[in-house]
Amino acid sequence: VLWNVQDGVLTRVRCLLHSDDGLTDQQVSEAVGCHHGTAQRLRKRYTEDGLAAITRRKADRIYETKLSRSH
Question: Is this prediction's pTM over 0.85?
Fold first, then answer.
């Protein structure tokens, strides 16, 4: 499962790097191997949330720990 999480982060980073190079969403999706809607949503989210878009977490949200440290 950890590999899938890292793979998703790498895909999002690659999308943003290709977008920064001036590629269209369609060109980004072909270069990275994702759907063009994914590239579009990620680019939009990056403009709104910055680097938090890479981790899929909201920039202003505070996340609570689900497990206590004693476990």
Answer: no
